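As the work plan foresaw, our protein records have gained a structure token line. A representative record is set out beneath this paragraph:
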Amino acid sequence: MHPRNRHAARYDFPQLIAANPEFASFLTHTPTGEETVDFTDPAAVKALNKALLKQFYGVQHWDIPAGYLCPPIPGRADYIHHAADLLAKVNGGEAPRGKAVHVLDIGVGANCVYPILGTREYNWRFVGADIDPVAIRAAKHMVAANPALTGRIDLRLQKHATDIFEGIVKPREEFDLTVCNPPFHASAAEAAASNQRKNRNLGHAQSLEPSPNFGGKNTELWYEGGEEAFVRLMVEQSVPLASRVLWFTSLISKKETLPSAYHFLKQAGALDVQTIGMNQGQKVSRLVAWTFQDEAQQQAWRTRRWK
């Protein structure tokens, strides 16, 4: 994991139980007698997230509606820290901190995890966008319940499913960074099959629930054409914002998507493309980042916005 990731060590279960006492009921044991968590149980994953967010980030009130995506916190933290390193490259090697840094989360979800982590780790300001009104309402309620987050996270509903930035980014608004965890399955059937594989890998022959262990509504899990189609759309729609966004980024779950993504970025005229590998246990993913600004423009951006 990233060296600044707070979750590189094994979970400290006594501390997590102290943070969220309900988590104790979800602990189980491995065949060798070690304490662990049943990651096929959505309720257990949710209780773990509550404990992690409270213990490490001071988020006292966190919840999501039933069936919505409950993401793994360590992996999401890795994304935020690697994205911060992109900004550090133009800032003397130090990740910029404070309210001057403005970040857009595409597909913020009801969990609002990326804005939580970025706000608490780096004191950044966020805009979170989503096409699901229930997710936006839930995220707004959660932000309002935590004084440390209020006034730092602006949540906006995307009213057009084919638009990513249009209708969200206001006229003359600028962002230092965009983050996105796109839906990477091409259909509901593909998402269900992936869930079955995960459960088999975790030692469960069959899932007891139709939804994945980390939950997720259709818009969170799959998109027609899969993540390749979504990333292509995002790249195409990033071009008009070339001078108003420093770094665009997206999680890429499938390595098979990378060649197409590089092709789309070349066609779009991206001047710099970075691919950052991320490993959390058995899960391997990567962060792809691109900018349309050359080194001189990036330095001018830093001087104008962060000084």
Q: What stands out?
A: The radius of gyration is 19 Å.
